[in-house]
Amino acid sequence: MRAADLITRDTVILFGAGASKGATHVTPADPPLGQALYSELASRFPNEWGSSSVLGKFAKELTRDFETTMLMKIFGFQPTSSLLAAHRSMALYFASFAPDGSAEDYYSKLLAALRAHDRLNNVTFASLNYDCLLEIAALSLGVGVDYVLDDPPPGWIPELS
After folding, report:
1. CA 123/CA 119 separation, integer angstroms
2. For the whole model, what pTM was predicted?
3. Interatomic CA distance for residues 39 and 138, integer angstroms
4. What are the pLDDT digits (tens) for 14-57?
């Protein structure tokens, strides 16, 4: 997408972290929020997230406040190689979530309603979620997804998550 294409759009919808909780019609279940996330990762990926892993020493803090602990205690303070393995496993975990195909999840319903009212091309979507439920819902409805802005406007700083 080119930055010039954004000029014709008059609406931005930003989905904050955790927006997929309660999206309904998600398999295998709704993605967990921060407090439950660490427990899920530690049980599924013990080598990367479990008690004997590099990140295991932060278990209590990650359970209490996942995002802040990652930012303040782990990023920039732990060996990059151990973080790559943790990120890979977290990506695999979140890739396991998808709308169930019924188009009854709230992402699909929103996209379908915008399309029905001829507003879909006027909206730019952004998400801070780790999962890709919005993107999967869009693709299943034939709506394109673009992660890259080919010619960003001056001062554009992409969100890094």
Report:
1. 7
2. 0.80
3. 30
4. 888 788 888 999 999 999 987 799 999 999 999 999 999 989 99
* Long-range contacts, stretch 140-144, CB < 8 angstroms, 24+ apart: 140/99, 140/101, 140/103, 140/108, 141/103, 141/108, 141/111, 141/112, 141/115, 143/111, 143/115
150 confidence band (pLDDT: 50, 70, 90): low
Measured from the Cβ of residue 59, the count of other Cβ atoms closer than 10 Å reads: 17
**DSSP code at position 2:** B
Report which of 95, 65, 71, 97 is spatially closest to residue 83, judged by C-alpha positions. 71
82, pLDDT greater than 80: no
Measure the N-to-C terminal CA separation of the chain; round to a whole number of Å: 20
Query: Per the structure block, which two tokens stand in for 114?
Result: 């915008």
Q: How confident is the model at residue 93 (pLDDT cuts 50, 70, 90)?
A: very high
34-44 vs 80-95: helix axis angle to the nearest 10?
100
pLDDT at 154: 52
The region that residue 103 occupies, defined by phi over 0 for left and psi between -120 and 50 for alpha, beta otherwise, is left
Give me the helices (H) in 12-79, please. 34-44, 46-49, 59-64, 66-69
